[in-house]
Amino acid sequence: MDEKREFKTEVKQMLDLVIHSLYSNKEIFLREVISNASDAIDRARFESVKDAAILEDDPEWKIKLVVDKDAKTLTVVDNGIGMTAEEVEKNIGTVANSGTKKFLETLQANKEKLPPELIGQFGVGFYSIFMVADEVTVVTRRAGDPKAGTKWVSKGDGYYTIEPCEKAKRGTEVTMHLTAENEEYLEEWKLRKIVEKYSNFVEHPITMDITREEPVKDADGKDVLGEDGKPVPPKVTVTEETLNSQKAIWLRSKSEIKKEEYEQFYKHISHDFQEPFETLHWSVEGQAEFKALVFIPKKPLWDMFMQEQRPHGVQLYVHRVFITDNCEELVPHYLRFLRGVVDSSDLPLNVSREMLQEAHALRVIRKNLVKKVLDTLADIQKKSPERYAEFFASFGSILKEGLREDFENSEKIQKLLLFNSSALDDGKTTTLEEYVKRMPEAQKEIYYLTAASLEAAKNSPQLEVFRKKGFEVLYLVDPIDEFVIPSINDFQGKALKDISKGEVDLETEEEKKAKAEERKAHETADNAWVATLKELLKDQVKDVKLSTRLTDSACCLVDDEWAMSQQMQRIMKAMKQDVPDTKQILEINPDHPLIASMRQVNEKDVKDPRLATYAKLLFDSACLMANQPVANPVEFAKQVASLMADGLKDNS
Length: 652
Ligand code: ADP
Hints:
The chain is α+β, with helices and mostly antiparallel strands. The chain folds into 4 domains: about 240 residues, Histidine kinase-like ATPase, C-terminal domain (Heat Shock Protein 90), CATH 3.30.565; about 140 residues, Ribosomal Protein S5, domain 2, CATH 3.30.230; about 80 residues, Rossmann fold (3-Layer(aba) Sandwich), CATH 3.40.50; about 120 residues, Heat shock protein 90, C-terminal domain (Four Helix Bundle (Hemerythrin (Met), subunit A), Up-down Bundle). Helices cover about 35% and strands about 20% of the residues. A 9-stranded mixed sheet has the order 1-6-5-4-7-3-2-8-9, covered by helices on one side. About 0% of the residues have low confidence. It binds adenosine-5'-diphosphate. Adenosine-5'-diphosphate binds next to helix 2 and helix 3.
């Protein structure tokens, strides 16, 4: 006689919630059932170490999916530890787990506000079956118990029945009768997909009988016909296939794993066709317990460029069960090029998104993972700089984002940066550390210049005085540099200074003194000339100043110390951002013959019409030198042509 019983009230409430699709993601019911089966096998395996008798005549651990399309049932069979009648009652009939009670309390307190994913936070895995099934039958027998088993049936309506039954082998069979809208879970492809996605690395084989029908052909490849003249029925073969790879490679010890195995696994999870640049495999015990297998790819993977494609970053597993591959709490954004797996022992399997954000265990893992990756990179940089340069060429731009994102590790990231520089040949790069070592004593700051290209940087007039003084200037030609480098305040006590902004003061006291005398001679004339230029170019520039950074060129454009640079404005505009047009400062070189001659013209007659024309030309040429467009190129070309013609006339 089966006994009809009522679930405890809290289970009833739970069922209600689950059935009304609180899970955002129905297919995980299979993950829950498989993971219960896998745990049950783990427990049986553990007990069998002490008591081999419980293995009975079924020594091969296995989880099998059985589909009955006519009955519309999916059964998950395991040969794990099984349950006694009391255990069934305790584990499934009631809420054994205090988390569930806590969940219900939270639920009551919050009523409708609760996000659906929250349900997964508590141990309610088994009940998720009712999202897809309208009846569940559990037939189970405790390993080592007499041959009688227990049958438990529920329609998820608040009641269940429990009765003794026959069961020849140990273990549990969970049979789910699928509702009409969930019949897709009877399809081979669907089950394969779910197993591959969530349970691929479950250690035990998850198998399924696969039925194939093959038309019967003769030697010539023609259909064999029956007596009625029609093709004979196809040949049906049934083979049991294993759906999961079972290879929890990260759990194995490093020394046992061959390079090819790592490679294969990397390719499997990254979809990369090349081998990884670097493989990091380590485990942590103590404060946090986890195992990690993380790869640095050689080149950016295609999914990094697809906005709509969720990147397959580092996957989070809990006890070999896949949880998510999109966990921001696990890997910071600036290390998003990493691929791999972290398997934690500290998180519950039913961890929800909300819980991931809160989980202390994840914070510990993240910290450890970041340290491991940054230290590994530092090590490669030290031991083989050329190899490191390859990495930096691929992922340097992304890594740099860490300067703004991760202040705690900013110093380590600073050391990992590579720059082109005025002191090096093309193609060579330097670290900040090397730069500082090369600094002459008189140099107080680390100088850099941002530019659209290496060519533009090298030809920049702003470099002149630095060249003359023998001060090295870093060329920042990666568009991201503008955003991230200013967040480095100083490196080894040396401030970083953008030489295209604000004042540049490189002169020694003696030089200043000598210059001052020389300047004094035409101070008034200089001031008048600057005032004229300011007036003539008032629509184009914010200010005109005598330059201390030019030695060869007549003029250049610079930004205010705190202004957004032209390069940055271009980037922002390209990103469709609203950028106010900011005017720049025109610096003129008082020692340049052209500037000196114009000063003389200005001294003679402030109204001389040539001054207006030349002022415009001066400004336009400064724009060209800064790689900025000239407002009216046709006009510019005409004026240059006319000047050239004048020049030739004088010579003829
Ligand atoms: P959790 O797995 O988080 O404890 P579940 O609701 O999924 O929560 O399962 C409740 C309990 O039922 C499990 O802890 C386990 O004791 C028992 N159980 C479920 N499935 C099986 C199984 N296949 N074999 C043995 N015990 C099982």
